[in-house]
Structures are given as structure tokens and as C-alpha cells.
Amino acid sequence: MTAPNFYIDIFLQPGEFYFGDRDTRIRTILGSCVAITIWHPQKLIGGMCHYMLPERTRRTTSLELDGRFAADVIQLFLQEIKKSFTKPSEYHAKIFGGGNQFPDQDKRVFSVPDRNVLAGKELLAKHGFQIMNEHMGGNGRRNIMFDCWSGDVWVKHVEKMITP
């Protein structure tokens, strides 16, 4: 499917979330963070998140969902799905990121990237999403571009690490 003549181009910073329609492209850059995309092939709607951590480590009194955390961002997706009268099982889910930014660190320590990957996969499965594709782990960063008109996700993985 070709791009529309005019589309909205959204760039997500860490902790941001966006859900759009067939006239939307969403982009982000990942290191140890994770991006999840979901896309509805009939309605041509979908969204992307860029979360930093699996869950909140401190409890707050705020009831507001925070896109920095995997558990909260899944709830943001579910709110959008409910508004569009669809179900999680109707979406194509894809998950990216979790790159190790410090490959020389002690591998015996359960790292943030590993925890982010595990949390994303578990939450998607728990809420009835099927992961259609993934590009996870390794070293370095990823540039992600998601087209809501086609469901295509483009990944550029740069493994080269800059060392002092």
C-alpha cells in the first residue's frame, strides 16, 4: 500500500505514546527501551509506544497512566482499542528494541533491556495480542518507522557502539 498524499509524521520521545489512523507515520529511536506497534488491518488504525522500564518502582498517588512504563502503556493501548470498538486479538502486534547499550557490563546482572523485553512480551500475551514480528536484543540502537496505512514497520539496527 502506498503512502497517502499527506500524512501526519509523529516522532516519539522516550515515554511517549501515539495512536492514529491511516494518515499517520510514527517514528522513534531505541536503545535499551522498547517500542510496541499495534495495527488493525481492516480499520487501518494503530499506535506505537516507546517505554523505558517494565513497571513503576515507586507507588504514586497519581492515577494517570505513564508511557514510560510497559504496564501503563499497555493500558493506554487498551483504552484506544476500546474507543475504536475493536479487540486486542484483531491487531498485529510487533515489538522492537531492548538493545544492550553497555555490552561490557557484567552479564550475570539481569539488565534493563532484558527486563523491558520480557515485560513487553508477557503483557502483550496476557491481554490477547499476538506478536507478528520482533527485532529484539543485541547491542546498539534501532530507528523504527511505522506506517498506519499499511502496518509496515521499518527497522534500521546500528550495532556499532561508540566507545571512549
Order of helices and strands: EEEEEHEHEEE
List the uncertain runs.
Answer: none
Going across the major beta sheet, what is the strand order? Answer: 2-5-4-6-7
Q: Estimate what percentage of residues fall within beta strands.
A: 25-35%
The overall number of domains is 1
Structural description of this entry:
The chain is α+β, with helices and mostly antiparallel strands. The strands form two sheets. Strands 2-5-4-6-7 form a five-stranded mixed beta sheet, with helices on one face. The chain has a four-stranded mixed beta sheet with strand order 1-3-8-9, with no helix packed on it. The longest helix is centred in the last third of the chain and has 15 residues, at 112-126. It is globular, with a radius of gyration of 16 Å. It has a single domain, classed as 60s Ribosomal Protein L30, Chain: A (2-Layer Sandwich), CATH 3.30.1330. It starts with 7 loop residues before the first strand and ends in a 6-residue tail after the last strand. The chain has helices at 70-83, 112-126; strands spanning 8-11, 17-20, 24-30, 34-40, 45-51, 92-97, 130-136, 141-147, 153-158. It is built from two helices and nine strands, in the order βββββαβαβββ.
List the defining traits of the structure above:
34% strand; 4-stranded mixed β-sheet; 2 helices; 60s Ribosomal Protein L30, Chain: A; alpha+beta; 164 residues
Element layout with pairings:
Blueprint: E1 8-11, E2 17-20, E3 24-30, E4 34-40, E5 45-51, H1 70-83, E6 92-97, H2 112-126, E7 130-136, E8 141-147, E9 153-158
